[in-house]
């Protein structure tokens, strides 16, 4: 973790209101920096809004949020599907304010994002997760039954597990450090690294899990990665709401599906039907998968409704945080499988680009009013 992130984390945890304002300001600058990336600027250059569209944005945000907001995010999201929606929620307000105020107790964020913790909660809720073969928590090695192992025993027992999936269990994002491995005779067939070398690269917190075999309606699209659904749930008016869902799909022989890692993403309708066009992070478009040539329009994911219900159940089980980003897939039997939970730096841009609509829909006005109210409160009064 970088020095800046460590300092930011400490500021987030403090109860000081000045520190809290520094955190919000830092997060906002981060979103501005992202939209000013030269690749995004090129997309923005090709997208203009009419005077009428700008008037709709101004009216919505001034009346409810109390301020005008830059048009950049509306232009950016409009560029993908060509659909304009004044209710697009700009990223400058999402992570820095909505998510920050929703997940006010950041201690829970660390706990529930830990990939060695969330499976225990999911199991108690009746939600399936990939089977853990081995794990390491702050340098303590464990087997699938959480029995503590010495490093020597761990290396011996893991040396011939065959195909598995390994990933960092904390402080990871966008598929970094995640890989399919095939351990035989103490060495990974794919990378050539020994078990000891893999441990060294992964650090003190990681998990080795079984490979999930996806349902045929998922693997038919692209078989080399698990392909996951990003389901964002948020607590609102004593209920759990769900944002428009997207599916992330690997391509080009990649074993991960993250957009930041070169994957593509596509909107999923409530009945599990895919929208017609998938995108990359920087607006490459695909009407069919570039490797398998499966046409997206009208393609239906079976058992999709079970994913949404599982996500809502998980959130209602641990409602201490206001918003979660769940990554799910569906196994061969049609059962939802929770891959991981993400509690910070949520990716609403995926949904707004892929669906061409604001993620809060007809709740947008109320959400903006809520943020406006929360900004006026001392941090201690948001708890």
Structure characteristics:
alpha+beta; globular; 15 strands; 38% helix; 7-stranded antiparallel sheet; 19% strand; 383 residues; 6-stranded antiparallel sheet; 14 helices
The SSE order reads: HHHHHHHHEEEHEEEHEHEEEEEEHEEHH
Instruction: State the helix count.
Output: 14
Mean pLDDT: 92
Helix vs. strand class: alpha+beta
Q: How much helical structure, as a percent, in the residues?
A: 25-40%
Record field, number of beta strands: 15
Beta-strand percentage? Answer: 15-25%
Q: Please tell me what the overall shape is.
A: globular
Q: Could you name the ranges where pLDDT drops below 50 across 5 or more consecutive residues?
A: none
The description of the largest β-sheet is: 7 strands, antiparallel
Strand order of the largest sheet: 3-2-1-7-4-5-6
Question: What assembly state would you assign to the polypeptide chains in this entry?
Answer: single chain
Distance between the termini: 27 Å
- Structural Rg: 21 Å
């Amino acid at each position: 973790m970088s020095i800046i992130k460590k300092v930011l984390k400490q500021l987030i945890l403090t109860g000081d209101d000045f520190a809290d304002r520094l955190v919000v300001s830092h997060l906002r600058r981060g979103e501005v920096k992202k939209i000013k990336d030269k690749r995004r600027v090129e997309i923005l250059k090709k997208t203009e809004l009419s005077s009428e569209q700008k008037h709709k944005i101004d009216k919505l945000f001034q009346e409810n949020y109390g301020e005008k907001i830059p048009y950049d995010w509306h232009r950016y999201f409009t560029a993908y599907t060509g659909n304009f929606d004044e209710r697009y929620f700009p990223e400058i307000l999402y992570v820095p304010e909505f998510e920050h105020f929703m997940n006010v107790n950041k201690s829970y964020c660390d706990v529930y994002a830990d990939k060695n913790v969330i499976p225990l909660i999911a199991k108690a809720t009746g939600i399936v997760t990939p089977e853990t073969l081995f794990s390491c928590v702050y340098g303590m090695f464990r087997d699938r039954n959480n029995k503590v192992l010495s490093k020597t025993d761990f290396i011996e027992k893991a040396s011939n597990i065959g195909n598995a999936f390994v990933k960092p269990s904390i402080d990871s994002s966008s598929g970094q450090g995640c890989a399919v491995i095939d351990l035989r005779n103490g060495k990974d067939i794919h990378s050539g690294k020994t078990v000891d070398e893999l441990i060294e690269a992964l650090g003190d917190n990681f998990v080795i899990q079984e490979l999930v075999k996806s349902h045929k309606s998922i693997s038919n699209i692209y078989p080399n990665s698990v392909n996951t659904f990003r389901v964002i749930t948020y607590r609102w008016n004593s209920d759990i709401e769900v944002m428009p869902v997207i599916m992330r799909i690997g391509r080009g022989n990649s074993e991960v599906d993250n957009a930041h890692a070169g994957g593509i993403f596509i909107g999923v309708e409530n009945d599990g039907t895919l929208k017609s066009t998938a995108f990359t992070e920087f607006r490459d478009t695909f009407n069919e998968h570039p490797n398998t040539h499966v046409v997206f329009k009208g393609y239906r994911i079976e058992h999709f409704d079970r994913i949404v219900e599982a996500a809502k159940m998980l959130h209602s089980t641990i409602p201490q945080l206001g918003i979660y980003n769940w990554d799910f897939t569906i196994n061969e039997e049609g059962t939802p499988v929770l891959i991981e939970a993400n509690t910070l730096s949520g990716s609403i841009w995926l949904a707004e680009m892929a669906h061409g609509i604001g993620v809060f829909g007809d709740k947008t006005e109320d959400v903006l009013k809520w943020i406006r109210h929360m900004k006026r409160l001392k941090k201690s009064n948001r708890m």
